[in-house]
Amino acid sequence: MHMIENGNVAAALAVKLAKAKVIAAYPITPQTPLTEKLSELIESGEMQAEYIPVESEHSALAVCIAASSAGARAFTATSANGLLYMHEQMHWAAGARLPIVMCVVNRAVGAPWNIWNDQQDSISQRDTGWIQMYACDHQQIIDSVIKAFFIAEKASLPVMVCYDGYILSHTYMPFELPDQERVNAFLPQFRPDYALDPNHPANLNTVTLPDVRIDVHGELAHGYMEIRYLLQEDLRNALSVAQEAENRFREVFGRGDNPFIEPYRCEDAEYIMVGLGSISYQLRDVAETLRDEGMKVGVLGVRLYRPFPDKTMAEALRGASGVIVFEKALSYGYEGALCSDIKSALFEHAQGGRKRTFVKGYIAGIGGREIKTAELSDTLRSAMRGEQENGPNWIGIKIEE
Amino acid sequence: MGTRKYRYKTSHSQPGPGDGGRTGFWRVLRPIINTETCIPAKRKAEACFICWLYCPDAVISRTIPPTIDYEYCKGCGICAEECPTKAIAMVDEGSFLKDEE
Amino acid sequence: MHTKTTILSLPEEEFVNVGTRACSGCGLGIAYRIGLKALGRDTILVVPPSCLTVLQGLFPIASTKLPCLNVTFASTAAAATGLLAALKSLGKEKIKVAGWAGDGGTSDIGLQSLSGAAERGDNFIYLCYDNEGYMNTGVQRSGTTPLGALTANTPIKGKLQQKKDIPAIMAAHGINYVATCSAVYPLDLYDKIKKAIPIPGTKYIHIHTPCPPGWGFDPRYAVKIGRLAIESGYYDLYEIEYGKFRLTAASEKLLEKRKLIPVKEYFRSQSRFMTLTDAQIAIIQAEIDAKWNRFFQSAD
After folding, report:
1. Which of A196, A280, A384, C33 could disulfide-pair with A301, CB 3.0 to 4.6 Å?
2. Which residues form the domain of C294?
3. Distance of alpha carbon B66 from alpha carbon B60, whole angstroms
4. Given CB atoms, is C137 within the 8 Å cutoff of chain A?
5. For an interface test with B, which of C18, C34, C185 has the most B Cβ atoms less than 10 Å from its Cβ?
6. Distances, alpha carbon C123 to alpha carbons A6, C196, C249, in Å
7. A 17-36: CB under 8 A from C
8. Among B28, B38, B52, which residue's Cα sits nearest to residue B84?
9. The domain A261-394: what is its CATH number?
10. ipTM of the predicted structure?
């Protein structure tokens, strides 16, 4: 069934189709319509779930952590400072290996206050051990949230589905609403290996020593380092879980191909632009413009940012003369995080004797600053001409006259 | 031999005694019950058991007379202090260590 | 008037294993042991960072025989809410949920989430064991540390502020059951937990918990010193049930006896109060006398 709705509602409908059982919600712009829609679905009886109006985002994730530990499918959503407030719990959920799904409606972080879109909120969480998926349109939002529950429960890892605040959350687009029976076929019931239960008492996430230790059965149990190592190992293996989810989704719904990247006219491209989220679709207009002028340019949209699909990225970008990364966040003190990761992947997977590809990063749209397609075209032309300075450049900045 | 095959991937503790090791080694003084003045011992029936109630470490059993698990008793002395007939004496642990060696 | 539990009628089964890392003479040891007997096997516990975290043991050995979720410092009550929501969605509502937090995790960092849960009326028991300081991290002052107490970070002047009254804050939320207990009156604690269990909504139980290393006394006097707090009228055992205040147990007996032990005996039994002057103690005694005169008048 096709419908026209906003991105937040698309996300809410996915949560309903996935039959999440515990929803924790604290309001923050521009996430609010998502959780409001969920409360409407629950109060009307259309969705069977517990809706907890928590008193802070830290508590929102606390509710999800506890609910997931007790064996219930849990969901929450947030943005910006709300995500930052739950940062402690982000690490906790990953270390506890809980398959919580969260929507992050990307928004700029304070100080100073700003409610418009950039990706600093989710990018700044990239070290926590969460899987990060980015959606570029409403179909991707609804499909990704459904896939997220599958991936989370298969890999025992929390997953965030990110989409741009206002640009996607509040705009209306047509999309296909997946049918409940097909979602049931795609997404099995949540059966955790362990759920808190008086019949099988256990003490979860207690103090863990630096070194290994014998347990009550006389077996050698992990130290903290092993538990964290397994987190990393399983997070890297989640690349194949993401592919498995994609394949399964395609079997059931007839769409889906590559869970990692969305290439556009990259096959013969000499210069490839890279974007995360909706900007990658805007970059297609840039590619069209320059193609019309005879330049061989393409766009690589990144769909999965953590675990970073380094091999896929390197293979996709290696052949280009230049890679131009546009991102709405950065690792303050150095450069755009995606740009760094790409440079690292290219370096890591460099093939001997090949001319080294240059990677140039630009910062755009911070705090919702409008990104003008013409400015992107100009920037690309200048990068292609080799007019490079060191460090990231900020497109649309007005600090100089 | 590593922990690769360990049954859990998270910090998942199972119930068992002695997390703190053999906490009996903490003792400087050991509680000894005098069965002649201990109320349940004298009456040969369930009675009193104040020592059992107040033990913070659950090392006293509600037997007649109460028995103390010296593997784990930390020697805090609360049982001796609270016994209504002063039937429990706190005795220097050193004197027992020689016998137990 | 419900039957009061006696030592002999207390269930014998222990829900705590021996050999924990708790200090010798730990007041929490008594409260936790007896408290778990009241809660029973069908309970899931929530525990933030605190002395209890350590008492419960380090991975992979658990001292508690009940299922337990360790959570971050600020989130005890929110986690309890999450457990309840999950159990309800799974049709397992008969399983009880109980949070056990220290005074720091309740009156300071945990107050926000506790207030949120109480406002929502989430159906669990929250037990705060109040050893009047951040004892697990080395005896730093907390919101419930009493005036004048020396701690690791009030090492010379003692705490300059009053003890935060958490039971009063919880009563102001309008929850159906608020009670104060003491680790050294374990039968009263047992009865209050038993009473609280079937009461709907959030229940709050505050447990005064003597701490030998933190308060500065020989462990063998833990119960005696806990008693002095109550029998001097300094700390009272009461219930606020559906808004109605009532002194209970040993505090109720004081209403009949009409005789309070001088609070100076309580203060002089612990080295943490060694800088409290006689003049300061006299002021505190006057406050206690005023409070109890009001109690005596209400009782007449």
Report:
1. A280
2. 27-299
3. 6
4. no
5. C18
6. 36, 10, 26
7. 21-22, 24
8. B38
9. 3.40.50.920
10. 0.96
Residues of C in contact with A39 (CB under 8 A): none
In a domain, C158, yes or no: yes
> Can you tell me the distance from the alpha carbon of A249 to that of A187, in angstroms, rounded to the nearest whole number?
9
C66: region left, alpha or beta (phi > 0 left; psi from -120 to 50 alpha): beta
CATH of the domain at C31: 3.40.50.970
Q: Is the CB of residue C288 less than 8 Å from the CB of residue C233?
A: yes
Instruction: Tell me how many domains chain C contains.
Output: 1
CA atoms within 13 A on the CB side of A181: 1
Contact C162, C147 (CB under 8 A): yes
- CA dihedral over A59, A65, A70, A75, signed as positive or negative: positive
Q: In 10 A of CB A33, how many CB atoms?
A: 20
Instruction: Compute the Cα dihedral for C263, C293, C176, C190 and give only its sign.
Output: positive
H helices, E strands: number in chain A: 13, 18
What is the per-residue pLDDT across B33-87, written as a single tens digit (0 to 9) for each? 999 999 999 999 999 999 999 999 999 999 999 999 999 999 999 999 999 999 9
CA nearest to C46, candidates C65, C69, C62, C28? C69
CB contact under 8 A, B10 and A202: no
Place of tokens 């959570």: C71
Determine, yes or no, domain membership for C141.
yes
Q: Which CATH number fits domain A2-186: 3.40.50.300, 3.30.420.40, 3.40.50.1970, 3.40.50.970?
A: 3.40.50.970
Show me where the domains of chain A are located.
2-186, 261-394
Per-residue pLDDT of C247-266, as tens digits, reads 999 999 999 999 999 999 99
Alpha helices in C121-275 (DSSP H): 166-172, 186-196, 212-215, 222-231, 249-257, 263-268
Tokens of residue B94, six digits: 């050193």
Give chain C's length.
300
